[in-house]
Structures are given as structure tokens and as C-alpha cells.
Amino acid sequence: MSLTLWVVLALQHLAAGLLSPSLMPRVEREAWLMGTRFHVVIEGVDRATADRLGESMLREVERIDALLNTWDPSTPLGRLNQAPPSSWTDVDGELAALLRESSGWADATSGAFDTRIGALIDAWDLRGSGRSPQAGELAAALAASGPNAVELGERGLMRSSGAAWMDSGGFGKGAALRAARRLMDESPVPSEARVLLDLGGQVLAFAPFASPWIVDVAHPLRRFESAATLSVHDGSASTSGSSERGRHILDPRSGLPVDPWGSVTVVDADAYTADALSTALYVMGPRTGIAWAEQAGVAALFLELDGETVRPAWTSAMEPWLLEPPASPQPDKER
């Protein structure tokens, strides 16, 4: 659910005296994974190590996709989504941990983030041409969604009904980027290396503090126009919003599509957290969302649309990441 973020690969905005780009080895890999573009850039590492690291990261994202893909009924999560209802089904340890984490975020956000919305996705036909369900259909879909729809416990997983299933769209890219980062932590990467992963707009950046990656946050209406610039040296930036998917982001609490009010970007050291929270905060909306994020210490940037104009606001935790804050003044955060 990430709005497009694009990366300025030139080493602009960096402090003077850094190593010239021409002296930094650079390796790039690209593939189509998880239904989107996966781009890897590695600088400051010898070619052989960079090639091995890039290939291993690509394979790791591919592995997580094979674990979490809900379009393919043969994947582990796809099989769980077809398990007989009202009976316990064993869950793989890694998959169980990821699903428990998603349940934790559902609790923490009071349901603004929830993976157990498969029945609602079906009701709105979001994987088809789209439709508006009748009131009775929506009520039935809501009853087959949320905390009571799928139970994950010591004995495994149990679906409450045949309509209940889990969607990994709100955390899948974050989980894949986190797994790729673990590989980097286990690899002999020098401290001066710069590594950038871009998975469908969610980025994971690693670089020395003095030479961060420069990431532009897209305008909510014009995806190739920058509305803000981030400086990220060790973390992930994820954006959720209305630009790419219109009203296709559902509020798990009401079962209704979220009004396309703009976008929210979250930066966090953990890619899964950034992915899940950008979704949750977008569902909460710009007012409730920024209050929740400020209290929780989340680095978040809200770009609220007022016609064609963007009204930006950001949390205190976001300020260290903002290289070029939005030009227009912040609206009052007090609600």
C-alpha cells in the first residue's frame, strides 16, 4: 500500500569532502517481485561482494513473496486462507511470527491496521473490477473480518468462517525488506558502504550518517512531483495514500474505503513497522493520525490535500529525517 517514493541517486545535498561518486563502486540489480519493481543499489563495496549481496537480497525478497503471496493459493499463507473453518491448522514458525506481529499492530492501532480483511476485499471486489456491496453484504463481510475472523494461538490458526481470510498487502513489502536487511547485517559490508532497496516505492536505506540516501516523497496527486525530501541513512520509508490506488484502501473498522485525503509517510528503523504504520495512520486520517503518531513517537509526515494544495504536518520524530521540509507552513497540530 505504499505511494511511490523515488530516489535521487546523485550524491547531491551531501556534506563537502565526501568520497567522489566516480571512486565508489556501484552495482545495481532489478527484478519484478511481489507484483512490483524491486531495485537494489550497492555502493562502496567490491564488485564480487556487491554481486553476491544483491543476488542474495533478491532471492530473499523472492522467498518472502513465496511465503506471503495471497494471490497464489499454493503459498503457505494462501493455503491457510483456504483451511477448513472452525478447526485448527498448523502454521509455519516464521509465518506465525509475522502474523502475530500483524495482530499486535491491529491491537496497538485499535483496528486501523488489520490483515484480517479478506471478506471485505471480496465484498468490494478489490481484486476484480470493483463494486459497491449492499448493506447486508457489507455487514456480513464485517462480521467475517477483524479480530474474531481469524484466531492465531498455540494450536495454530483457525478461521471463523469460509469467508474469512488474511491479506498481506499492509505488511508484505516491509517483511521482505526486513528479511533483506538481515542478510546485509550478516554480510561483510564495510561501514562506508551505501545500500538502497526500493520495493514498489517502499525504500530501505543504509549508509554512513554523513552520506545518507536522498529520498523524495511524491505529491499525493502527482506521483512524479516531489512534495518533500528525506535524508535517510539507516531505516525504511513507507508511504500510503490515495495517488496509486484511489479509494482501494479499506478501513477495517467500518469496512468502507478511506476517503482519498492525501498521504502519510513513516520512517522507521524496521521496514515492517514502517509499512504497517503508514497504512494505519492513513486509515486514521490526518488529524487522529498525527495525534496518535506524536504520542507514540512515530516519525510521520502527513500531506493533506486541500483541492490541489498540500497542507503538510509532521511529528517531532520526523524532523531529523526531513532534509527539505514542505515549503508551506504547518497547520496547527492541536486537535
Can you characterise this structure?
The chain has 335 residues and is an alpha+beta fold. The protein has 2 domains: 197 residues, ApbE-like domains (T-fold), CATH 3.10.520; 84 residues, T-fold (Orthogonal Bundle), CATH 1.10.3980. It has 8 helices and 14 strands. Strands 2-3-6-7-10-11-12-13 form an 8-stranded antiparallel sheet, covered by helices on one side. The radius of gyration is 20 Å and the shape is globular. 46% of the residues are buried.
Short description:
Helices cover 29% and strands 25% of the residues. By secondary structure, it is α+β, with helices and mostly antiparallel strands. It has an eight-stranded antiparallel β-sheet, covered by helices on one side.
Low-confidence stretches: 1-22, 329-335
- Termini separation comes to 27 Å
Top-tier CATH class of the largest domain? Alpha Beta
General form = globular
Mean pLDDT: 88
Across the major sheet, the strand order is 2-3-6-7-10-11-12-13
Helix content: 25-40%
- Helical region count? 8
Radius of gyration over C-alpha positions, nearest whole angstrom? 20 Å
Please identify, by name, the CATH architecture of the largest domain: Roll
Largest sheet: 8 strands, antiparallel
Q: How many beta-strand elements?
A: 14
